[in-house]
Specification:
Belongs to the ABC transporter superfamily. Residues 13-246 form the ABC transporter domain. One of its GO terms (molecular function) is ATP hydrolysis activity. This is Sodium transport system ATP-binding protein. The chain has a single domain (2-254), classed as P-loop containing nucleotide triphosphate hydrolases (Rossmann fold), CATH 3.40.50.300. It is an alpha/beta fold and 257 residues long. The protein starts with a strand and ends with a helix. It has a six-stranded mixed sheet, with helices on both faces. It has a four-stranded antiparallel sheet with strand order 2-1-4-5, with helices on one face. The protein has helices at 15-20, 54-61, 83-89, 105-115, 120-133, 149-160, 179-194, 206-212, 230-237, 242-254; strands at 2-12, 27-38, 43-47, 69-74, 77-78, 90-93, 167-171, 198-203, 215-220, 223-228. Bound molecules: adenosine-5'-triphosphate. The site of adenosine-5'-triphosphate (ATP) has 14 residues, from β2 and α2.
Amino acid sequence: MIEIKGMTKIYKLNKKQMKESKTTNPVKTAVNNLSLTAKPGEIYGLLGPNGAGKTTTLRCISTIIKPTKGEIFVAGHEVQKEPEKVREKIGFLTGDIKLDPQFSVDYMFDFFGRLHNIPEDRLKSRKEELFTYFGIKDFSHKKIKELSTGMAQKAAIAVCLVHDPEIVIFDEPTNGLDVITARSVTDYLKKLRDDGKLVIISTHVMSEAEKICDRIGIIIDGCKVAEGNLEQILHDTNTEDLEDAFFELYRDIKGGK
Ligand SMILES: Nc1ncnc2c1ncn2[C@@H]1O[C@H](COP(=O)(O)OP(=O)(O)OP(=O)(O)O)[C@@H](O)[C@H]1O
């Protein structure tokens, strides 16, 4: 289970960031008093536009950065009090952290497997299972930098699942992938969910959220503005698809037509 209780993340901006953001305010509230609960056996989707605070939220859950306020429990462990325990439980995929391009997929998989203290025979069977599913067996000896975008993303996914984590946290998992590769990734997320894992993803792709998420949290300007399964969100916004629901909520927050 993931439980976020009143999480706020405020970044301090340097002069360059202030200039880029055209602001004189030296701080940016990326996430504002966010609470949510995600449970095993579901795919929870954090849906929001660019800059909404999705990546920040997932990074805080994954112990990469610290929330400014609030508490986050992952499988019962608070992220700031027991970060190592949290890291054992999760697999975290984000576009910002890439596998070292100089090494082969095989090497990276074994390296992270050994970091997680996985016995060699288990590591071998895990590799066989994941590399076969993602079709990377024939490429596993190649350096990451020699792989296509899709293949590199599938390799990154395999590596972050090496320890068979009970909680899978994927930041924009299909970003930049063609439709075939994206489908193999989303099908695997469904398989993980069906195996009883908790999967939490961020996305700005409405159709992806509609198709694969059991529950969706819509986040705009760092605030959760709606949550529920698709049916509940459409009912609450009196709309017929998620895109319309999103714009309804967006207009409420931002004003305008
Ligand atoms: N390290 C940082 N320092 C300062 N501001 C940051 C930092 N990281 C993110 N931000 C700002 O916080 C806000 C939320 O960013 P975040 O990356 O969490 O959003 P997002 O919903 O994941 O967006 P995207 O889809 O564009 O990745 C944005 O305004 C962003 O510019």
